Amino acid sequence: MRPVEAFTIPEAGLLRLVTAGSVDDGKSTLIGRLLYDSKGIFEDQLAALENVSRRRGKGELDLSLLTDGLQAEREQGITIDVAYRYFATPRRRFIIADSPGHEQYTRNMVTAASTASAAVVLVDARRGILTQTRRHSFIASLLGIRHVVFAVNKMDLVEFSEARFAELRQQLEELASSLGLPHARCVPLSALLGDNVVERSESMPWYEGPALLELLETVDDSLDLEALPLRFPVQTVVRPRAGLASEDRWHDFRGYGGRLDSGIVRVGDPVAVLPSGLTARVSGIHTHEGPVALARARQSVMLLLDEALDVSRGDLLSHVGAQPRVATEFSANLCWLASSPLDRRRRLLLKHTTKTVRVSVASLDYRVDVNNLERHAAPETLAMNDVGAVQLRVTQPLALDAYGQNRFTGSFILIDEATNATVAAGMVLDA
Fold first, then answer.
1. Nearest Cα residue to 261 out of 311, 222, 225
2. Burial class (CB in 10 A: 0-12, 13-18, 19+), 229
3. What is the rounded CA–CA span in Å between residue 243 and residue 256?
4. What's the first-to-final CA gap in the chain, in angstroms?
């Protein structure tokens, strides 16, 4: 039977976004308003919300409680953990990660933003750009989030002033430019009253742009992964189990299972196996539905090669002539997640795609003060929530792309070998 091209379910309708802002900027209220006004709340959730609002003496619904789910958060009136919420409109589906605003929870925002394609950074119209605004915008740029919406909230408390919004918009555009954020927009709104959240506000007729939801529905988050070079980390080597088949054709069968992180692969393509550098041609592509002639980014497939090469879990297949860098030492940005500071004598593991190797920190180049974005050269260590540039040395070669070129093969985590706890998230700088 002649193989056919694989069918891929499109994901263009789903937008993953993260919200961030200072304490009391109204993040949780904004998300609650989005859910409430877009009819994204179930009846039992609404009933529970009404009960809690009454117990807290609120005369109206406290929409912030839709995301502030932990008891400690409700008691303190702040967001501590990352809360994920799903809702949909006729035009798009959304997954919102509501991240904490306080500096001590920077690591939580890094976690929330790591899979996001867009970020909504709240700014209090009265207080303007704060330290947290700069920190959250920096983290968004660090993690390669291309679309950032600055939601200038509480416009009702500045009498919906056009002049105040124009002043803040200029400052925010300068901040976005300094951080290299390519697609930054500003929207004036009132999360409490619903102005410019789901529908355009009659109180701000001078604003001619879209409401926040309308803007998010039209954000083009399509990163053309298929246009990037082929990156296929091998997850497993597939061999028929003994006794299941006795035909001669199974004797030499060996397939390599995994997911295409980027690119397209076709039967007959020449590929290189990294880090060894050995080459072969793709002789077959299999999915759960059978053989296909072509596979695309995000698909999980099994590849067959026309040569009997030594390929195992952790190896990476790429097209010949478009290979990533293979290195045992490289520079990277680290966000330190552990409560105990970085100790260079500590035994650490580095997990990159499907490969885990031992790693050591060869040097600490600088630490970024996430509050004012200043760099402090040659720090002694990195503490929890710190971001810094380091030189890493691994015991086995890795196939690396710079994070700015490919988020999949340019990212990794560090693991404490003794406790198996994740202690840092990293982004490759110099591949």
1. 225
2. middle
3. 21
4. 42
| 316 membership: H or E segment, kind and range | strand 316-319
**Residue among 395, 376, 60, 373 at smallest CA distance from 194:** 60
Q: Quote the tokens at residue 187.
A: 């929207």
Peptide bond between residue 291 and the one before it cis (omega within 30 degrees of 0): no
Half-sphere exposure of 116 (CA within 13 A, CB side): 32
- In 3-state terms, what secondary structure has residue 348? strand
Give the closest residue to 326 by CA, choosing from 390, 276, 361.
276
Q: CB-side exposure of 106: number of CA atoms within 13 Å? A: 31
Question: Minimal CA–CA distance to 175: which of 233, 135, 127, 203?
Answer: 135
Tens-digit pLDDT string for the chain (431 aa): 333 333 333 344 789 999 988 877 888 888 888 888 877 665 656 666 566 656 665 556 666 666 655 444 444 444 445 678 888 888 999 998 887 755 666 777 888 888 899 999 999 999 999 988 998 999 999 999 989 999 999 999 999 999 999 999 999 999 999 999 988 999 999 998 999 999 999 999 999 999 999 999 998 877 788 999 999 999 999 886 544 444 544 456 789 999 999 999 999 999 999 999 999 999 999 998 899 999 999 999 999 999 989 999 999 999 999 999 999 999 999 999 999 999 998 999 999 999 999 999 999 999 999 888 899 999 999 999 899 999 999 999 999 999 999 999 999 999 999 999 999 999 999 75
What are the structure tokens assigned to 257, written together? Answer: 């299972």
Burial-class residue 80 by CB neighbours within 10 Å (0-12, 13-18, 19+): middle
**Domains and their CATH numbers in the chain:** 14-218 (3.40.50.300), 226-319 (2.40.30.10), 325-428 (2.40.30.10)
pTM of the model: 0.83
Residues forming beta bridges with residue 264, ordered by sequence position: 296
Residue found under tokens 């009391």: 24
Q: How far apart are CA 27 and CA 99, in angstroms?
A: 9
With vertex at residue 148, the alpha carbon angle to CA 199 and CA 17, rounded to the nearest 5 degrees, is 75
User: 87 - beta bridge partners?
Assistant: 94
366 forms bridges with which residues in the sheet? 377, 389
d(CA 193, CA 14): 27
